[in-house]
Amino acid sequence: MLKVEGLHVYYGGIHAVKGINIEVPRGKIVTLIGANGAGKSSTIRAVSGLLKQTKGTISYNGNGENRNILGLSPENIVRRGIVMCPEGRRILPHLTVFENLMLGAYTRNDKKAIKKDLDWVYDLFPRMKERTWQKGGTLSGGEQQMLAVGRAIMSAPEVIMLDEPSLGLAPLLVKEVFDIIGQINAEGKTVLLVEQNAYAALKIADYAYVLEVGNIVLEGPGKELLEDQRVKEAYLGG
After folding, report:
1. Beta bridge partner(s), residue 18
2. Using only C-alpha atoms, what is the Rg of the chain?
3. pLDDT for 178-232, tens place per residue?
4. 20, 25, 112, 167 — which has fewest CB within 10 A?
5. pLDDT for residue 238
6. Is residue 236's pLDDT more than 80?
7. What is the mean pLDDT of the chain?
């Protein structure tokens, strides 16, 4: 569904991603793991159109088309069905939960489908329904993460990209967030997950890529990499 070929990403003089190839099949969960600075977030920011110093090909077969989306604007990429939930949540603290969610639907005008997705978000995150009219900035960190994921769902994506969804969360909330990622995938959404919590990511992933300083050094089914001694030593505490 989404194929990244020969992707290079530059930040000024820094070569952050060095010609990597990644494939995300329809309906699967694919994860990118690695240390800080490995190039994980740069990769999905390039897919989302947020980075311009890039070269390569990003082929997307969704919403009835198959084309190279590298170089398109972020809004055009969202309209084509690829949405990113950014690291750090990036909600608007002065807006209510409802207003933040509806911002996710800014490219849509299908009112019945928007209402259906809003109901789905409230089913996934009952606390969001309870806090519909509460300002986003008054939510806990975990609740803000749920709101950010809900906002991404409201864009009606075919592919949802999650950048470090467990960052800064307590262990119980981490489990809850990963359970919800599984539910989102079960509803037919394709997931590209960037995550430092290698154990949680590999446990849920159909396929995984390990990045180090802009290169892919390992890849394979998530459960196989979970048992790989190199991964255990580098990312799972031995």
Report:
1. 8
2. 17
3. 999 999 999 999 999 998 889 999 999 999 999 999 999 999 999 999 999 989 8
4. 112
5. 55
6. no
7. 91
Is 20 in contact with 62 (CB distance < 8 Å)? no
Q: What is the pLDDT of residue 202?
A: 95
DSSP string, 97-140: HHHHHHHTTTT---HHHHHHHHHHHHHH-HHHHHTTTSBGGGS-
Predicted TM-score (pTM) of this structure: 0.92
* Residues 6/43, Cβ–Cβ less than 8 Å: no
Q: What percent of the chain has pLDDT over 70?
A: 97
Predicted local confidence at residue 170, as pLDDT? 82
Q: Is the separation of the CB atoms in 81 and 152 below 8 Å?
A: no
**Cα–Cα distance for residue pair 92/96, rounded to 1 Å:** 8
Position 62 pLDDT exceeds 80: no
10 Å CB burial of residue 165 (0-12, 13-18, 19+) is buried
Q: What percent of the residues of the chain are helix, what percent strand, and what percent coil, each to the nearest 5?
A: 40, 30, 35
- CA–CA dist 63, 220 (Å, integer): 28
CA angle 31, 35, 41 (to 5 degrees): 55
For residues 188-203, b (16+ Cβ closer than 10 Å) or e, as one string? Answer: ebbbbbbbbbbbbbbe
List, in sequence order, the alpha helices (H) in the chain. Answer: 40-47, 74-79, 97-103, 111-124, 126-130, 141-153, 171-186, 198-204, 222-226, 229-235
Place of tokens 């390039």: 46
pLDDT over 60 at 13, yes or no: yes
How many helices (H) and strands (E) the chain has is answered by 10, 10
